[in-house]
C-alpha cells in the first residue's frame, strides 16, 4: 500500500493528513491560527509528532456506517483450524471477547478512538465526537494472529438474523482458542451484518488501539502477541484463504452474498475514503480544490459529485425519520400531534431487516421513550435513543448496519435507567422472551406440527414496561422511602361563577396504592392546593384543553419543577367505569368497594379512566390495578382529623423548608422509623393529626409507656432493622416481576413478623398501656400461609424451583436433563477405555460450548472428531455422539427453564391470593414503628418537655408554659421559652406587636407546631401543656408574589385572608402575621382592623394577630377577647442600639425600631440618622391625631361596628330574609358589647 502524503491545500501551506478515521469518524476541520490544538502523530517508528487542528465545528454530513458484528478479512499467519476435522481443516479467523468488569457500572469515554495505519503516519483525533456514527472504534487489536470481528454484546441469540446457505461455513465455524484460560473468551455469532470498508482491508493495512473499543465494552484480558518476523509488506493471501476471505455479507442484514474479489473491494474502499475526505475538505475550507487531496493524490471532486454523495447519505437514513409524523400522520406543531407515536409506512417496514422490523414495531408506538433493547447480556439503545445516551452521559456511539447504537451491560440496567429518569426521560425495557435455543425449538415444533414455519427466524422480544419518574415500581431505582405519586386530574366548571368540581386519582406505583378524590372547591382552589402540597406528585396526567386558566395557574405555582405533565386525548378520560370493569373481569374479580361507592361521581371516574389509560401506555395497567388496593381519600377529613391545608404545611415548614429541603422541618424531627413503610405512614400521621380527644389520649398513653420500657423497642428494632420494603415487594409479587432472592426474603420476613408479634404481644401484656396489647392482638395469623408456601418451593442456584413432587412438569424436565448427563458421562467412560487414558475429561468453554472432550495433546483421536479449542497441553473435541447429546441437553435445559418460569408464575399467584392479609400485617408493623418513632422523638426533646393534657371541649384552647420551638432549640442552646394562653379562661386572640426580628414569627410557629405534635400523640417542648383539640390551623405568613398564579403580594394576602375568614370556627387556631402589607398604609390598616375584629367577634377562634400597626392596640383596648402583647426589647439611649429579649410580655410597643434594624443590616449611617428623625416627627403627629380622634368619639369604633352588625341582623330577621348566623353568635356579640360598655363605665 502506498504512503498517503498531505499536499498543500491552503495559502499558509499547512500540512493536513487524513486516515481512515476521516471516513469513519467526524472529519477534523482545518487549523485556525486563533484556536490551535495539537494531535499526536504515531508513525511506524513510534515517536510522537503533532499537527495543528481547527476548532471549527465539523460538518454533520453522515459517513458510511459499518456493523459492529462485521468480520475482518485478515491474512493467514499459520493459525490452527477453527472447526476442523482431524484429517483436513480450512483456516479461518479466531475471535476474542471482552470480559465484563462488574465492579462498577461502566461509563463511556467520549474521546474518539485512535487508528493506526500500517506503513504510513496516522493522525489521532483528540477532540470529542458528538453524536457521530463511527465504526473506527470496532477494529480489533492485532496480536499476531488473524482476528474475526467481535460483536458488541455477548448475545445468547446466535440466530438473531436469518442466514442463507451461502453462510453455512461461517455459521458453523468455531474458534480454536490458544490460551490457558479459555473461559475468558466466548464465541459470539449474534449479528450477521453488512460489509464495511474495514472488512475489506487486510490485517496488515489496519492496526487498532485498545482505546478504540466502544464503551461500555468491558475490559479485555490480553495476552502478549507472539513475535513475528514477517515482513511489513502486504503478502498475497494463499489460495485456500481467498475463498474464505472473499465471502462477505451484503448490506442487507438478512441476505449474505458473495461479493467481488478482495482486491476490487479494497479499491472501492479507497475510492469511498477519497470522496469523503475531499468532501470534508470542502466543508472545512468552503471552496472546491482548497482542501487536502485524496490518499492516492489527483483530481478534485466537483461540487455536483459531492452533492450526490450527500444525497446518497440521506437516502441511506430511514426515510420516516427525515420527516417524522405521528401515527395519524400529523407533523410536529400540529394541534393533535402525538409525540409518543411515529408513522412508519408499510413499504418502508417491508424493506427493513428482520431485526429492524422488530425494533421499529415497538419503537413506533413509544417514540418519546428511550428503549433499552436486550441483546444477550447487554441492553442496547438505537438511533435517537443512542444519540441521547451519547450526548447526556457520554456513551460511545457505534453502528449496527443503518442504526447507530450505544449499549450497557444487562446488570447495570437499573443504574442507567435511573440516570435517564433523573433527566426527565421515559425509559422502556424490551426483554428477550426466549433464547436462541428456544427460538430453534419453537420453529422445530411448528414444523413437526405441520404448521407453516415463519420466515422470521429471530429471537422474540417484548416490551416489559415503561418507567417514568412518577411510576417507578422497582425500589432499587427509588431515591428514598417516601411515596412518589402520579396524579390524574379532571376538572368541571359549569359556569364562570360556579364552584369548580374536581376528580383526582392518585397512584403510588411502588406500592400499587390508588387513592380517589372528588370534591367541589372554592374559587381559590384551596382543597386542590392542599392536596397537591400534601402529595407533591412527580407526574401529572390531564385531559388536553380541559383545565381552566385558574387551575393551571395553581398547578404551575404549587407543583415541583421536576413534575412531568402528560396531556392525553379526551377519549382516554371518557370511560373510566368501563375500563375498570374490563380489567377486573379479565382476572375474574369483583370491582373493589371504594370504586363502586363513587360510580355516580363523573369527575372521579373520569380521572380514574385517564390514569388507567396512561398506565396502559406504560404497560403497567394490569400489574397495578388488579391489586385492588383502592381507597377513598379526603385531604381535609373534616371531623375526623385536624386539617392542615397547603399554605399551613408550607408556612410552618412541616414537610419542607423554604429551600425545598427537609432540614429543620417537623417531619425530620419526628421521623425515627426503622422500616420504610413505617416512614411513609408517619408522614400521613404528621399531615393529618388526630382530632378526637379520646384517640389522642390513647396514643399518648402508649407513647409514654414505650418511653419507660425500652425492652419493647429493642426487641422490635432488632427484628426489623434489616427488613426490606415489604409493602413495595408484595406489589411486585402481584405483578410477577419479583426477583428470586426477593421472593424468598419476603417469605422469610413474614415468618419473622409472625414470631416478632408473638414476642411483642407477650411484652405488651405486662405494660400499663392496654391499647398496645389490643393493637398487636389484631394481627392476622400468618403461620398457615407461610407454611403452605414453604411446602411448595426451594431456592436452587438462584432460582425458585418446586420441591420434589410439587410440580410434575418440572420433575419430568429434571429427569430428562439427568438422563442426558448420564449418557454423556457414559460416553466419556467409553472414550477413556478406547483411547486407553483416564486423563480425558469434560471441559466447558463459557455457557455455549459445553462438555467438550478434553484430551492430552499426545493422544490421537478418531478422525470424525471435531476440534473445538486447544491449549498448549490439551486439545478439546466434539465427537458425533457428544455433539448430538449436547444439543439434546441444551434443549432439555431450555424446557426445564420454561417449567421454572411457569412455576414461578403459579407461586406468585398463590402468594397473591392472600394479598390483603400480607398488607394488613405490614400495616400493623408500620403502626408499631410509628409509635416507637414518636416515643424516641419525645425522649429526645430534652428538658423541659412534657406529655400534654388533652381535654374535650367545644371551643379550642391552648396553654403552654416555657414553650420552645422544637426544631430550633436543638441548634440554639440559649433559646428563650415563653408562656402562651389562648382560650378557656384566657382571652382568645393575642394582638402581638414588636420590633422587626424580635421573635414574633418564631413564637407563632412554636405554638402551631406544638399543637400539631400534641394531637399526633407526641410530647411537646414545654414544662406544662394543656389544650383542647383543634380542628384546623389556618395561617397567613410570609407573603410573596406568585407569578404563575398572576397574583401580587397583596392579592395573595387577601385570598388567604378570605379563606381564613370563611373556614375558621370556634375550634380553629388562626395565625395572621403582618396583614395589610403591599398596599397604601391607610388601606392596609383598615383591612387589618376589620379582619381582627371579625376573627375575635364573629369567628370566635383562638389565634395570633401579629402586626406593626400599633394603633390597633388602642382601637381594641376595650375588646374583651383581644389581649395586647409585645416582644420585649431594650434600647440604649446613648448608642441607640436595640437588644432583643425574645420575651412575650403584656402591653404594646410604640416603636418597630426599623431604622435600628437597618443599621444592623449595614445601611449607611447618614441614611439611618435621617430615617430616625423622620420617624420621630411622624410618631408625634400620629399621637396627636389619635388623641383628637378619641375626644370626638362617643363610642369606640369597635362598639360602633358591633352595634351596626346587630342592627343589620335584626332587620334581616324581621324581614324574614336569608341569614346564616346562629343565635349563639348573636348572643356572643351582645355579650361582648355589654362587657365593653361595663369596662367604659369603670
UniProtKB/TrEMBL annotation:
GO terms for molecular function: ATP binding; ATP-dependent DNA damage sensor activity; mismatched DNA binding. Residues 219-235 have a biased composition (Basic residues). One of its GO terms (biological process) is mismatch repair. InterPro entries: DNA_mismatch_repair_MutS-lik_N, DNA_mismatch_repair_MutS/MSH, DNA_mismatch_repair_MutS_C, DNA_mismatch_repair_MutS_clamp, DNA_mismatch_repair_MutS_core, DNA_mismatch_repair_MutS_N, DNA_mismatch_repair_MutS_sf, DNA_mmatch_repair_MutS_con_dom. Residues 27-40, 49-73 have a biased composition (Low complexity). GO terms for cellular component: MutSalpha complex. Residues 1-15, 184-194, 236-245 have a biased composition (Basic and acidic residues). Pfam families: MutS_I, MutS_II, MutS_III, MutS_IV, MutS_V. Residues 115-137 have a biased composition (Polar residues). Keywords: ATP-binding, DNA damage, DNA repair, DNA-binding, Nucleotide-binding. Residues 1068-1084 form the DNA mismatch repair proteins mutS family domain. PANTHER family: DNA MISMATCH REPAIR PROTEIN MSH6 (PTHR11361:SF148), DNA MISMATCH REPAIR PROTEIN MUTS FAMILY MEMBER (PTHR11361). Belongs to the DNA mismatch repair MutS family. Component of the post-replicative DNA mismatch repair system (MMR). This is DNA mismatch repair protein. It comes from Mixia osmundae (strain CBS 9802 / IAM 14324 / JCM 22182 / KY 12970). The lineage of its organism: Eukaryota, Fungi, Dikarya, Basidiomycota, Pucciniomycotina.
Amino acid at each position: 500500500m502506498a504512503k498517503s502524503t498531505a499536499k498543500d491545500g491552503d495559502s499558509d501551506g499547512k500540512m493536513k493528513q487524513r486516515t481512515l478515521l476521516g471516513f469513519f469518524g467526524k472529519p477534523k476541520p482545518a487549523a485556525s491560527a486563533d484556536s490551535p490544538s495539537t494531535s499526536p502523530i504515531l508513525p511506524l517508528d513510534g515517536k510522537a509528532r503533532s499537527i495543528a487542528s481547527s476548532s471549527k465545528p465539523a460538518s454533520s454530513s453522515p459517513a458510511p456506517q459499518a456493523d459492529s458484528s462485521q468480520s475482518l478479512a485478515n491474512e493467514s499467519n499459520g493459525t490452527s483450524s477453527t472447526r476442523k476435522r482431524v484429517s483436513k481443516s480450512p483456516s479461518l479467523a479466531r475471535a476474542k471477547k471482552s470480559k465484563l468488569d462488574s465492579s462498577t457500572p461502566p461509563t463511556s469515554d467520549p474521546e474518539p478512538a485512535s487508528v493506526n495505519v500500517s506503513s504510513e503516519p496516522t493522525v489521532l483525533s483528540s477532540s470529542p465526537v458528538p453524536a457521530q456514527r463511527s465504526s473506527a472504534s470496532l477494529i480489533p487489536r492485532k496480536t499476531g494472529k488473524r482476528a474475526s470481528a467481535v460483536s458488541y454484546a455477548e448475545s445468547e441469540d446466535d440466530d438473531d438474523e436469518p442466514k442463507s446457505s451461502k453462510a453455512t461455513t461461517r455459521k458453523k465455524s468455531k474458534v480454536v482458542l490458544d490460551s490457558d484460560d479459555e473461559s475468558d473468551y466466548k464465541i459470539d455469532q449474534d449479528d450477521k451484518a453488512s460489509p464495511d470498508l474495514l472488512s475489506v482491508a487486510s490485517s496488515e493495512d489496519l492496526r487498532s488501539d485498545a482505546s478504540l473499543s466502544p464503551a461500555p465494552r468491558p475490559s479485555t484480558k490480553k495476552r502478549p502477541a507472539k513475535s513475528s518476523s514477517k515482513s511489513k509488506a502486504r503478502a498475497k493471501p494463499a489460495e485456500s484463504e481467498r475463498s474464505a476471505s472473499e465471502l462477505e455479507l451484503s448490506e442487507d442484514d438478512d441476505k449474505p452474498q458473495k461479493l467481488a474479489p478482495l482486491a476490487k473491494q479494497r479499491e472501492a474502499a479507497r475510492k469511498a475514503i477519497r470522496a469523503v475526505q475531499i468532501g470534508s475538505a470542502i466543508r472545512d475550507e468552503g471552496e472546491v480544490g482548497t482542501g487536502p487531496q485524496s490518499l492516492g493524490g489527483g483530481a478534485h471532486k466537483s461540487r455536483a459529485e459531492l452533492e450526490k454523495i450527500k444525497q446518497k447519505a440521506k437516502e441511506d437514513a430511514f426515510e420516516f425519520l427525515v420527516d417524522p409524523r405521528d401515527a395519524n400522520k400529523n407533523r410536529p406543531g400540529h394541534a393533535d400531534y402525538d409525540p409518543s407515536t411515529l408513522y412508519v409506512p408499510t413499504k418502508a417496514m417491508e424493506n427493513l431487516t428482520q431485526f429492524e422490523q422488530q425494533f421499529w414495531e415497538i419503537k413506533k408506538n413509544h417514540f418519546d421513550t428511550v428503549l433499552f433493547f436486550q441483546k444477550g447480556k447487554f441492553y442496547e439503545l438505537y438511533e435517537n435513543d443512542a444519540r441521547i445516551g451519547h450526548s447526556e452521559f457520554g456513551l460511545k456511539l457505534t453502528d449496527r448496519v443503518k442504526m447507530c447504537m450505544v449499549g450497557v451491560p444487562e446488570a447495570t440496567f437499573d443504574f442507567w435507567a435511573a440516570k435517564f429518569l433523573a433527566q426527565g426521560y421515559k425509559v422502556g425495557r424490551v426483554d428477550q422472551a426466549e433464547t436462541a435455543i428456544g427460538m430453534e425449538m419453537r420453529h422445530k415444533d411448528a414444523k413437526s406440527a405441520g404448521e407453516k414455519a415463519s420466515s422470521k427466524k429471530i429471537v422474540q422480544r417484548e416490551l416489559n414496561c415503561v418507567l417514568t419518574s412518577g411510576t417507578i415500581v422497582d425500589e432499587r431505582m427509588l431515591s428514598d422511602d417516601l411515596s412518589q405519586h402520579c396524579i390524574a386530574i379532571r376538572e368541571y366548571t359549569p359556569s364562570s361563577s360556579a364552584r369548580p368540581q374536581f376528580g383526582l386519582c392518585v397512584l403510588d406505583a411502588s406500592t400499587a396504592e390508588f387513592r380517589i378524590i372528588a370534591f367541589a372547591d372554592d374559587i381559590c382552589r384551596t382543597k386542590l392546593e392542599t392536596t397537591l402540597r400534601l402529595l407533591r406528585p412527580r407526574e401529572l396526567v390531564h385531559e388536553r384543553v380541559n383545565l381552566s386558566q385558574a387551575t393551571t395557574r395553581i398547578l404551575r405555582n404549587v407543583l415541583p419543577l421536576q413534575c412531568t405533565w402528560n396531556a392525553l386525548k379526551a377519549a382516554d378520560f371518557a370511560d373510566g367505569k368501563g375500563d375498570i370493569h374490563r380489567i377486573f373481569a379479565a382476572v375474574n374479580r369483583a370491582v373493589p368497594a371504594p370504586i363502586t361507592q363513587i360510580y355516580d361521581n363523573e369527575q372521579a371516574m373520569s380521572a380514574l379512566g385517564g390514569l388507567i389509560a396512561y398506565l396502559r401506555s406504560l404497560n403497567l395497567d394490569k400489574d397495578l390495578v388488579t391489586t385492588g388496593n383502592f381507597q377513598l381519600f379526603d385531604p381535609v377529613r373534616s371531623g375526623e382529623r385536624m386539617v392542615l391545608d397547603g399554605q399551613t404545611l408550607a408556612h410552618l415548614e412541616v414537610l419542607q423548608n423554604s429551600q425545598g429541603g427537609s432540614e429543620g422541618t417537623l417531619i425530620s424531627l419526628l421521623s425515627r422509623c426503622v422500616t420504610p413503610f413505617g416512614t411513609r405512614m408517619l408522614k400521613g400521621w404528621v399531615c393529618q393529626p388526630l382530632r378526637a380527644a379520646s384517640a389522642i389520649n390513647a396514643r399518648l398513653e402508649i407513647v409514654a409507656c414505650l418511653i419507660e420500657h425500652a425492652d419493647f423497642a429493642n426487641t422490635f428494632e432488632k427484628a426489623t432493622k434489616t427488613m426490606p420494603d415489604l409493602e413495595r415487594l408484595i406489589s411486585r409479587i402481584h405483578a410477577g416481576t419479583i426477583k428470586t432472592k426477593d421472593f424468598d426474603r419476603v417469605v422469610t420476613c413474614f415468618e419473622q413478623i409472625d414470631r416478632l408479634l408473638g414476642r411483642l404481644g407477650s411484652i405488651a401484656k405486662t405494660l400499663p398501656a392496654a391499647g398496645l396489647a389490643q393493637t398487636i392482638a389484631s394481627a392476622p395469623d400468618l403461620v398457615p400461609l407461610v407454611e403452605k408456601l414453604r411446602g411448595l418451593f426451594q431456592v436452587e442456584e438462584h432460582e425458585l424451583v418446586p420441591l420434589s413432587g410439587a410440580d410434575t412438569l418440572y420433575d419430568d424436565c429434571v429427569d430428562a436433563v439427568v438422563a442426558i448427563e448420564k449418557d454423556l458421562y457414559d460416553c466419556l467412560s467409553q472414550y477413556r477405555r478406547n483411547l486407553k487414558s483416564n486423563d480425558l475429561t469434560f471441559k466447558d468453554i463459557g455457557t455455549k460450548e459445553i462438555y467438550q472432550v478434553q484430551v492430552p495433546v499426545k493422544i490421537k483421536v478418531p478422525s470424525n472428531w471435531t476440534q473445538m479449542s486447544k491449549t498448549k497441553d490439551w486439545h478439546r473435541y466434539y465427537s458425533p455422539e457428544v455433539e448430538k447429546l449436547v444439543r439434546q441437553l441444551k434443549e432439555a435445559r431450555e424446557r426445564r427453564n420454561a417449567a421454572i418460569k411457569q412455576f414461578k408464575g403459579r407461586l406468585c399467584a398463590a402468594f397473591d391470593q392472600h394479598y390483603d392479609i400480607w398488607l394488613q400485617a405490614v400495616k400493623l408493623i408500620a403502626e408499631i414503628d410509628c409509635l416507637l418513632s414518636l416515643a424516641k422523638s419525645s425522649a429526645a426533646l430534652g428538658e423541659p418537655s412534657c406529655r400534654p393534657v388533652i381535654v374535650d371541649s367545644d371551643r379550642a384552647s391552648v396553654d403552654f408554659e416555657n414553650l420552645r420551638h422544637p426544631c430550633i432549640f436543638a441548634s440554639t442552646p440559649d433559646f428563650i421559652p415563653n408562656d402562651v394562653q389562648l382560650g378557656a379562661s384566657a382571652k382568645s386572640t393575642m394582638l402581638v406587636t414588636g420590633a422587626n426580628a424580635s421573635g414574633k414569627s418564631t413564637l407563632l410557629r412554636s405554638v402551631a407546631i406544638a399543637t400539631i405534635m400534641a394531637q399526633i400523640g407526641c410530647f411537646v417542648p414545654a414544662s406544662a401543656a394543656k389544650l383542647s383539640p383543634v380542628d384546623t390551623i389556618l395561617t397567613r405568613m410570609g407573603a410573596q408574589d406568585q407569578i404563575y398564579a398572576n397574583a401580587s403580594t397583596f392579592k395573595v394576602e387577601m385570598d388567604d385572608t378570605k379563606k381564613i375568614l370563611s373556614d375558621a370556627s370556634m375550634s380553629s387556631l388562626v395565625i395572621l402575621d403582618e396583614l395589610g402589607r403591599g398596599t397604601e398604609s391607610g388601606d392596609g390598616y383598615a383591612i387589618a382592623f376589620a379582619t381582627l375584629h371579625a376573627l375575635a367577634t364573629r369567628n370566635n377562634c383562638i389565634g395570633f394577630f401579629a402586626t406593626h400597626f400599633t394603633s390597633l392596640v388602642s382601637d381594641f383596648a376595650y375588646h374583651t377577647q383581644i389581649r395586647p402583647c409585645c416582644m420585649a426589647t431594650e434600647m440604649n439611649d446613648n448608642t441607640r442600639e436595640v437588644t432583643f429579649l425574645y420575651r412575650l410580655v403584656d402591653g404594646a410597643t410604640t416603636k418597630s425600631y426599623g431604622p435600628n434594624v437597618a443599621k444592623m443590616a449595614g445601611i449607611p449611617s447618614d441614611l439611618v440618622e435621617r430615617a430616625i428623625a423622620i420617624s420621630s416627627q411622624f410618631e408625634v403627629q400620629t399621637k396627636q391625631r389619635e388623641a383628637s380622634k378619641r375626644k370626638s368619639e362617643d363610642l369606640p369604633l369597635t362598639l360602633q361596628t358591633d352595634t351596626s352588625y346587630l342592627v343589620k341582623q335584626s332587620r334581616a330577621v324581621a324581614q324574614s330574609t336569608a341569614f346564616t348566623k346562629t343565635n349563639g353568635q348573636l348572643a356572643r356579640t351582645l355579650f361582648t358589647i355589654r362587657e365593653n360598655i361595663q369596662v367604659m363605665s369603670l
